[in-house]
Amino acid sequence: MGFMDSVKGIAEKVSGTVESGVKSVTDSTKKMGEKTKVRNEINKLESEIHNAYFIIGKRYFEKHSEAPEEDYIAPISDIKSKTERIEKFKLLLASYEDKQPCSNCGAEVVKGQKFCDKCGTKIEFPEPPIIEGFNDVVQQPVEVVSQTEPLKRFCTNCSAELDPTQKFCDKCGTKIGD
Question: How many helices (H) and strands (E) does the chain have?
Answer without folding.
Answer: 2, 4
